[in-house]
Amino acid sequence: MEKKQEINESKLGYADPQVDDLLKHSIRTQLESLLKSKLTTSQRLQLLQKSFVEAITLVLNDTKVEHQQLTKAFEAMYDQAVQSMALAELSQEVLTRQYISATGLIMSVQNCKHTIKDVYRIQGYARGIDRAIAGKLQNNPSITILYPACGPFAPLLLPLLSYYKDSQSYTSEQIKVILVDVQPGAVLTLQQLVKDLQLEDYISQIVEADATEFVPDTGIDLLVLEAMQHGFTKEGQLSIAKHLVQFLNIDGWMIPQHVSVRGMMVIGETEFNQQWKQVDYSHSMNMSSEAQQDRIELGELLKINKSTLLEMQELELQDGIKVIPANQIVLPTDVADMSKRIFAVYAHIETFAQEGIGQYDSGITHPRPDTSVYIDLKPKDIEHTHFVANSGDTVQFYYQLTGLPGFVPVKVLEA
Questions:
Q1: Predicted local distance difference test score (pLDDT) of residue 396
Q2: Which pTM does this prediction carry?
Q3: Up-side HSE of residue 291: CA atoms within 13 Å toward CB?
């Protein structure tokens, strides 16, 4: 009886939900591949290339395209891209390896693959990149684009390049792209996907490297970067940008061209729940005017563009942690219900020439509540992670450049 119980416990201990999910994913991917194996290689490649071109054709369209049409096109692009990933034959370990580096979260290939379905993130970037490329090629016969931390599908560029090739907008003589990712699985998938899309002539290099250490062997005209999560936390966008901005040509551009990270005080129920009950999906176009009026905007915490990155000074603390001094804000004194509000951080992203990603358009622009900040309210049990301040206080913000990047508020004491 005891032996039988030990066996059962062993089985239960092995049934890790994460392992089970990965097994299901592996089985499903293999079954999908079997179902599509009836297609010839030529037919599969045609469907893949067509899906990439159709998705970008929709986002570059200046007339309004319905949300459902966009999501359907992006799902089709994803479905085709994962077939290339299956052909890359990644091991389960390579597919699921996720870790925290010295500068931020390194997402697994498995998690990164879903970003190609993020419609409005890709739309904001693709439209901005398209305008930037047009601007650069007005005065240059060819340009070099660097896309670090690009993930397995390089979703901000590969669909756009597919569109250029299909429409004969720009040739591979005019555009050369360097793709960089630290994950071996991303590199293997990229090699397969680029081959399947027949974009080899546009891609000058696919490099496996840490983007915060990568040194290009040529000057860069466009730096395309998106390594963000909501509230400008977790991933190493700032560390990567600070390192690579130095390799831009004098007249080189960075995309996003401008990021403004801002703080606000909100009523959590209104901001994160009530305003979304009557709409089909979260998006800046669907935000309620009542919720916006109910916010208390605190102002800009940090401005990130080519100029600020080149001028940005690091401050090293005694334990070796590096921080970037951000802005000071004065907490307003005329808010009666301040103690009931939650501090939240959000990013406004301008990719290029008025194209961008608004609040709630993508996971990277969703406001992030920070419940460790208390204004006009003192927690019963103060932890070392809590920040407590009062209306009228001046608060200096710092941005820490660690494996867990994010903002650190510090109260400015009066002399």
A1: 97
A2: 0.90
A3: 18
